[in-house]
């Protein structure tokens, strides 16, 4: 159990270096913004390279099923917990 919590803490530190949760409107070239979270949405800026990974494509399919193409928030929203998204992003960054 302690190992799992330590892994999540290390993953969060690593992802915060590569993903921006800034609320600014600037998105660097080669990246795109997504909102993640179940109750409170948090903005992340991720590399476009994530789009080629099947696990990220699965998240996009889930977002399409839940929100369709016309979401009231007006932005790409991923329907999963922040912790699950961070763990996925860490796995994608290391591959």
From TrEMBL:
InterPro entries: SAUR_fam. Keywords: Developmental protein, Growth regulation. Pfam families: Auxin_inducible. GO terms for biological process: response to auxin. Belongs to the ARG7 family. This is Auxin-responsive protein SAUR20. It comes from Hibiscus syriacus.
